[in-house]
Amino acid sequence: xxxxxxxxxxxxxxxxxxxxxxxxxxxxxxxxxxxxxxxxxxxxxxxxxxxxxxxxxxxxxxxxxxxxxxxxxxxxxxxxxxxxxxxxxxxxxxxxxxxxxxxxxxxxxxxxxxxxxxxxxxxxxxxxxxxxxxxxxxxxxxxxxxxxxxxxxxxxxxxxxxxxxxxxxxxxxxxxxxxxxxxxxxxxxxxxxxxxxxxxxxxxxxxxxxxxx
Length: 213
What we know:
InterPro entries: NMN_transpt_PnuC. This protein has helices spanning 18-35, 41-56, 61-84, 100-123, 131-149, 154-172, 176-203, and strands spanning 7-11, 14-17. The chain is mainly α. Strand 1 (7-11) and strand 2 (14-17) form a beta hairpin. Helix 1 (18-35) runs antiparallel to helix 2 (41-56), helix 1 (18-35) packs parallel to helix 7 and helix 6 packs antiparallel against helix 7 (176-203). 38% of the residues are buried.
């Protein structure tokens, strides 16, 4: 796995690592599959986490631990989408807006989780090079993946908030490819948000008795 941390190429003066490139390309593919509501989004997300876990294990313990959590959430998402498969009009999962109670719970979990993880990173400096932004991105990613697993349109809003911090942080820390990928994430998020928004209205439309499903 050490070869994953070797340099792939140089772009605009930035050194691109194989692990950074391959892991983020899989993450980008997972987001695109999520937009299409394909259940394969979760295996691809799991594979992205596995690649980055292998690259970081024994080298960056905190980063490896974060990828382990991402893989667990990916397994949860796979299980949820297997249960909900076929509920939408087109045979995929049905999407919806979260209730205000769910939104409040996710916002509170994100805030409390960010504080807790940031304090952990500050207590053990080897786990992160920038505790607060790193904690925000990590917890925000987990919350976004949870909302995606539940078919909530707010999944896209959570990703957008992660992008706002992820882009400058990755460029500042030398992970240029991650920064470029987060920019593309932003475009996919806007398109995906529109698609799920419109889809939620279709899936919520009641079927009249006697009408074709």
